[in-house]
Amino acid sequence: MFAQGMESRRGVMWIAVAVLAAAVLVLVAVTVYYRRRRNSLPEGHWMKKIASVFAGFSEGIMSLKHVRQPFWFAFHTVGLWFCYWIMLYFALHSLDALSGTGGGIALITLVMGTVGNMITPGGIGLYPVIVSETLVLFGFPKVLGYTAGWISWGTQTLAIIIGGVAALILLPLMNKERK
User: Fold this and answer.
1) Whole-angstrom Cα distance, residue 143 to residue 133?
2) What is the pTM (predicted TM-score) of this model?
3) Among candidate residues 134, 113, 133, 109, the one with its CA nearest the CA of residue 122
4) Contact, 100 vs 2, CB < 8 A?
5) How far, in Å, CA of 16 to CA of 28, rounded?
6) Do residues 145 and 131 touch, judged by C-beta distance below 8 A?
7) H/E/C letters for each residue in 112-172?
8) pLDDT over 90 percentage in the chain
9) 148/106 Cα distance (integer angstroms)
10) Confidence class of residue 1 from pLDDT cuts 50, 70 and 90?
C-alpha cells in the first residue's frame, strides 16, 4: 500500500545489509588501528573509550568457552532471538498498512532496533525511532514506523516483565522440590 513495490524493497534490503556489513568492517578497522596505536593515545581519548567497549564485548565472547553446555546455550540464544524476531514480525502485521512486510524486513528492523536497546536502557524512546527510520527506508511513512516501533517495544517489554515475574514466583517453588 505505502511501499513502492517489491523491487525497491529488495534493493533497500540489500542496501541495509551492505550498510551493516560496512559498519562491521569499520568497527574491525577501528579496533586494528587502536591496537597499533593504543600506547600513544592520551587518557580519555574517544578511541580508548570505544576500545574499552570492544574489550568488554570480546571478554564476553571469550567467556563462552567456560559455558558448561555450549549446545544448549547456543540453542536457547537462537531461540530467544527467534522469539524477538517473530514478535516484531507479528507487531508489524498487526497494522494493516504493514501486513505485506516480509520476514527479511522484520529481521533488518530487529537488528537495527537492537542498536537502540544497546544505547539506551531497554531501548525506551530510541527503539521506536530506529524502527521508524528503518521502515522509512522501505517506503513506509514515519508515523506508521513509530506506531510499529512502540507496539513492538511494548510487547517485548511486557513479555520480559511477565517472564521475569513468572520466574520470581516459580524458581523458589522449583528449588524447594529439588531439596
Assistant:
1) 10
2) 0.66
3) 113
4) no
5) 19
6) yes
7) HHHHHHHHCHHHCCHHHHHHHHHHHHCCCCHHHHHHHHHHHHHHHHHHHHHHHHHHHHHHH
8) 30
9) 11
10) very low
The closest of 116, 61, 60 to 88, measured between CA atoms, is 116
CA 48 to chain centroid: 24
Map grid coordinates 592520551 to a residue.
42
Short-list 45, 43, 47, 22, CA closest to 35? 47
Residue with cell 536502557: 121
Q: Which residues contact 94 (CB under 8 A, 6 or more apart)?
A: 151
Amino acid in position 64: L
In this structure, the number of other CB atoms found within 10 A of the CB of residue 120 comes to 12
Stretch 18-45: mean pLDDT: 72
pLDDT exceeds cutoff 50 at 86: yes
Residue 123 cell numbers, joined: 531501548
